[in-house]
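Page header: ASSEMBLY MODEL / three components / 940 residues total.
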Amino acid sequence: MASISLECVSKYFAEGVAAVRDVQLEIAHGELLVLVGPSGSGKSTVLRLIAGLDAPTSGRILIDREDVTAVPPQHRDLAMVFQSYALYPHKTVRENLAFGLQMRHVETAQIDERVQDVAKVLGIEMLLDRRPSALSGGQRQRVALGRAIVRNPKAFLLDEPLSNLDPVLRVETRMELALLHRRLESTMVYVTHDQEEAMTLGSRIAVMHDGALEQVAAPMDLYDRPANTFVAGFIGSPAMNIWPGTIVSAGGRLSLRVNGFQWDDLAVGDLDRDRVLVGIRPHDVDLAPTDGGDGTGRVEVVEPLGPTTLLHVRVEGSDSRVRIVIAANTRVVAGDRIGFRPRRERLHWFDDQSGRRLAAE
Amino acid sequence: MRRVTEITGGRQMQRTEARLGWAMALPALSVIALVAIGPILWAIWESLHLHDLRMPWLGRRFIGAQNYIEAFSDSRFWDAIGHTVVFAAASVTIELVVGLALAMAVDSMTRGRGVVRTAMLLPWAVPTVVVGLVWRFMFETPGGLVNTILVRAGVTAPPIWFADPVAAWVPVILADVWKTAPFVAILLLAGLQVIDTSLYEAAQIDGASSWQQFTRITLPLLRPALLVALIFRTVDAFRVFDVIYVMTGGGPGTATEPIALYTFSALLENLRFGFGSALSVIIFTVTFVLALVAIRLMGRRALLEPMS
Amino acid sequence: MSRRILRPWAIALLIAAILFPLYWAVISSLTPESERFGLSNLLPTRLVSDHYRAVFTERGLGTAVRNSIVVAGLTTLVSVPVGALCAYALARLHFRFRTLVLTSILAISMFPQISIVSPLYLLLRELRLIDTYGGLVLPYLTFAMPLTIWLLVGFFRQLPRELEEAALMDGASRLRTLWTIVLPLSWPGLATTAILTFLYCWNEFLFALCFTLGPERYTVPVAIALFRGQYQVPWGQILAGALIATVPVAALIFVAQRRIVAGLTSGAVKG
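Prediction written out in full:
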């Protein structure tokens, strides 16, 4: 298993379009790193650059500390699982699995043995003599995985491997992938647009947006300390409430006017500015009596989510909304007038120009 | 500040791929250079010389543009050009109209498309020589099918087609149209089939007549396909040789001689290679210019769709 | 216009109109010389095969058929593999001037054949290839190579790119990928290309006329164009020969109609 590094990697396409901008990324030996971001964020491009399927415009790519930027994909000893699986339609499952080993001139006997082993691990032995067209989506996915595993590569690259599966199968396979990773102790780079998938799978997550890396951190760090408003809004579902606020200083205490209500006596610390962006997650907002909370509003939509319920509330005195998540057994219906109170210790502060996280005491 | 002169790793990989690409393309490109590009360049060179194989003792003298001057002052040359233009204009127009009508007829069929398509491919697949001979047979006088029918229909003195400098064009053009209109239809059919039927339905609801639907919906959406058909057929019509050689031999006299046939006769009947080469170059230039105009008109988009 | 359903009789009429000249040729070729040119022949009562026999015994059309098969076959055999290699590079690999090369190939396919007859003649004479098989295959490559390249680029591009990428990741070189993945999967396209190339070669007239000297090496189109009669035009034999020339291409069309149309319309090939 190998470590992978990207040093200042950029990829520009002919028309000046930047797909990837100055990405600096270290993936440790044996780590499962998830690349997550909306479509067009450049995450798939980064994966393809690591694979060697595209060449970077500038920067270096290192595998096990060796510069492989000029090395074509067939010599990088990486395995890739494609979103569409890309199984060879004219070959049987067995031949699909064996192909990579044949390319590396492994002896036939050894190939057969390894193919058999991997098929057993993935539970596809009975499919070995079938063609891909005779397999279901889930089975094809396993064969795609098997094709990668059997080669014992330096690292695995997975490009949205679960997005073509139905939701139930997706969750199941997600868990299997996690187990597989633990078992193989392999380096994996996993691309997805689903932030939930990212949070559950990755030991570290790299959030990408518009070709740039926004933040690379462990899941809970991303959740608790997002580096900017993009990460804050992208990670965590339902999305964080982010409001513009004005800081007013009166008599030594600082007040924050936000979204139709005001907090006084706020410990805003060293914030030497009068405008700021404030974030609070829906889970961190409590319901309060209409006269006792920080703000009041009218419930517009009630979305039952199972164990919790999501409320979309229109704030009185402004035309913005707040998302609040409450326990499912709380009795609230659309049209109700409610009060709410965000938990002050869970507030996030961001610079109103750059969106970057501000440290606050 | 350090000038960045090193080759980045990424660029290196691209170079390797480029080298492989050229290597793979080289055999084919060499062949093409040998049998197509080389000869054209040679023809240009030849055209500047006097080279008459009937009089080899004259050698191969450089005479500059004399062959061209001779060509441009030759009435037979201009006649040939005129014939070619007339033929091209008439054939292509009729082919497009008939082809379009045919395509629309087939488009409205729901069953039996395959059978009709096979029938339509047949004229195109038949060797041009055969086409010429069959149509000549039908227009042959005396006693050819066409004249027999005309006489039966009451025409007392049907034209002696191949003896008349103007009437001779009729079978020639008909033969060419018969061969290519179905093919044009197939090209246009492909274009018609991608037109969304809901457009017509919406137009019908809005009260548009069939003619209006045709001119406002069908024609505009078919423009790319029509353009492709127009261009390729025009270029082909300019190169016409087979069908006329076999049907009229350029006659009567030289009344139906297109420029390709005139060149052929100069080269292989009179063995005037220098002069014939000049004619060749002239034809080539005209076709080349047409092709460039065509490619420009089609837009690099439509052209390069097979690649991207 | 809305899709009106064309009645079966209209369809039949359409097909009949298109194929009539061929029908007439067939009938006439089976009519004895004495009964030529009568309208009564539209629905003949007597059919004879004299002309067909004569064409082979007296005119040696068999030799011409053999020549056509060899020349068309050899040309196809050369141009398809070489063209496939080039087409793959043009379809999938990135190199500068790729666009220029493709445009040039298209432009070359529009060369007027007559324009290169004289230099080719001189070249073939130098190489002593006049009136030989090689002397026809070489000129035929002028149109066969651009044709195969153009068609195959279109077919190769239709394959999902990810299959080739998977093969690369699996350790196959580009050439290996072409051989083990791309070619097997594009055999319909290869077949169509081969068929169309063969067809164009079979039908070719000008080069065959110019570069062969005698009946020993004539191809079928040349042979039948040069049938000469002593007193009158031997239409029966000419038509018989013409139809023999048509049979192989008709067969190919019947077999591969759908593929041919797909190949021609997707590859934007001209007539």
